[in-house]
Amino acid sequence: MSELILALLFLPLLAAVTTLLFRETPNIRDGASIGIGVLTAICSIQLFEMVQAGQSETLVLFAFAPGLSIGFTPEPLGALFALVAGCLWPLATLYSVGYMRGAKEKNHTRFFTFYAIAIHAAMGIALADGLITLFIFYEILTFSTYPLVAHKGNADAKSSGRIYLGILVTTSVTMLLLGIIAVWAIGGDLTFREGGVLADHLDPRFAPILLALFAFGIGKAALMPFHKWLPAAMVAPTPVSALLHAVAVVKAGVFSVLKVVIYIFGTDFLLETRASEWLIWIACFTIIAASLVAMSKTNLKARLAYSTISQLSYIVLGAAIASSIAVQGAALHIAMHAAGKITLFFCAGAIYVAHHYSDIKDMDGLGRRMPITFACFALGALSIIGIPPLGGSWSKFMLMMGALDAEHVFVIFVLMASSLLNLYYLGQPVIRAFFAQNTGETGFSEAPVAMLIPLVITAGMTVGLFFYADYFILSFKGVTP
Hints:
Blueprint: H1 2-21, H2 26-52, E1 59-65, E2 68-72, H3 76-102, H4 108-127, H5 131-149, H6 155-187, H7 207-217, H8 229-232, H9 238-247, H10 249-265, H11 267-273, H12 277-296, H13 300-321, H14 324-355, H15 371-385, H16 392-405, H17 409-435, H18 449-467
Antiparallel strand pairs: 1-2
C-alpha cells in the first residue's frame, strides 16, 4: 500500500517533468502524459480495492509532534476521491490534447504541466492523514490551478484569475487555517480519527461556530456566498472547467468538508448536539438559489457552473445531516456527479471546437449535426437530474433516505424541487438541439476523435455507475448505522 501511495503522489509530478522535458516534441509530450495518467488510474483502482477489503497503512513523511505530521493514510472516502481523480485524469488529458489543438490554444506545455501538478495536489488531499497535510495540498491545488484559469492571458482571464485566487486564498487563510488552529488547541490532535477528534473536548455551544469556519473556509465547496470564484473561472479553456468541476478542485472542497465532519467532529457528535442544523439550511438555500441562477444563463458553460454550485451542496447537505445513509449518499455523489458533469463539460467543449458556439440559443438543430455529442450530453444531464438508470439517481435517493432517517422531511422537497429545476435547465439544450429548427447548416460535423472518445466513455460511465453502484458505496468506521 505504501508503494501505491507514493505512486499516486509522484506519478502526476513525473507527468509534469516529462511535459517540460519533451516540450519541443508535442506528440511524445502528450502521449507520455496520457500513459502516466493510465498508470495512475490503475494504481488508484488497486488502492481503492485494498481499502475496501479492510487494509490500512500510514505513510508519514515528517512528524513535528504527536498528532502533528505530514502523512498519508488511505481510508474509504479518500480512496474513493483518489479513484475518481485517477480514473478521470487520463480521459481529461486525452480530451485536452484534442481541445487544445482543435481550438488552436497556445502555451500547451505550461497548460499540461500545471494540469498534472493539480492532480498531484488532489491526490495529496485524498490521501491526507490529517488537517496539516490536507491544508498544504489544498493550497498547492489553489495555486497550481490559477495559471490554468488565467491561461488565455487576456484582461478577462486575468480578472477572473484574481477573483479565483482572491476568494480561495482569503477563505482558507482567514477561516480554514483558524479552524485548524482551534482544533489543535481544543483537541490536541490534527489527525483524522474514527469518531472524530473533538467529541470529548469541544463545548457543544461553540461547535456551530467552529463548523462554520470549516464550511466557509473550505471555499472550494462553493457554498453561497463564497461561490463567485467558480463562475468567474469559466473564462478558462473547457478542459480546465472539467478539471475544476469534476476531477479535482470542487471535489477537493466537498471531500474536505466530508472528512472534517466524519473524522474531526464525528457524525454522532453532530447528531447529538444538532450543531450542523444551520448548515442544512445553507446547503438547501444554495441548491435552490444556484439552480434558479442557472436557469437564467444562456451561456452553456455559465449554466453548467451554477449547476455545479447546486450539486456540490448536495454533498455538503449529506455531511450536515450526518446520518449514516446521508453521509454514504454524499460520498457516492462525489463519483456520480464527477462522471455526469465531466461529460457535460466535455460536450460543451466539443460544441465550441466543432462550431464555435457557446450560447444555447445558437445550438438550435445542432443535435442533428452532432448526434453523438448531444446524446452523451443527454446521458450526463439525466444522471445529474437523478433519473434511473443513470448513476446520479442512487446518490440522490440515498440523500433523501438519509434526510428522512434524520427527520428532515423538508429536505426531500428541496431535492425534488432541485430535480425539476435541473430537468429544465439541463434538458433545454438537448431539446433545442434535436427538435428546434436548425440554422441552415447540414451534414455530420462532430469534434475531433481525441475529444469524442473521452466524452463517450464518461457518458457510458454514468450508465455503468447505476448498475455497479455497490462497488462505490462506502462503509465508514465510527459512523453509527
